[in-house]
Amino acid sequence: MDDLGFILLSYIATFGSTAVLAWRVLHRGRALGGQLPDDDKPWV
């Protein structure tokens, strides 16, 4: 039980950094997708 704080902090750091990375990737993808003309977007 002495290491509970370390374990929780490790989980928070891991999931927090993963969430920030996912947000940045999605945000950048939307920004770059907005620069493409609609003819070059096969997913639209």
What tags apply to this protein structure?
44 residues; rod-shaped
- How much of the polypeptide forms β-strand, as a percent range? under 5%
Residue share in helix:
55-70%
Helix/strand class: mainly alpha
Largest sheet: none
Compute the number of strand runs. 0
Q: Which regions are unreliable across 5 or more consecutive residues at pLDDT < 50?
A: none
Q: Helical segment tally?
A: 1
Radius of gyration: 18 Å
- Measure the end-to-end span: 53 Å
Mean pLDDT: 93
- SSE string: H
Shape: rod-shaped
Description:
The protein is mostly helical. Helix content is 68%, strand content 0%. The protein has 1 helix and no strands. It has one helix at residues 4-33. The longest helix has 30 residues, at 4-33. The chain is rod-shaped, with a radius of gyration of 18 Å. The N and C termini lie far apart (53 Å). The model has no long low-confidence stretch (mean pLDDT 93).
Short description:
68% of the residues lie in helices and 0% in strands. The chain has one helix at 4-33.
List the SSEs and their pairings.
Elements: H1 4-33
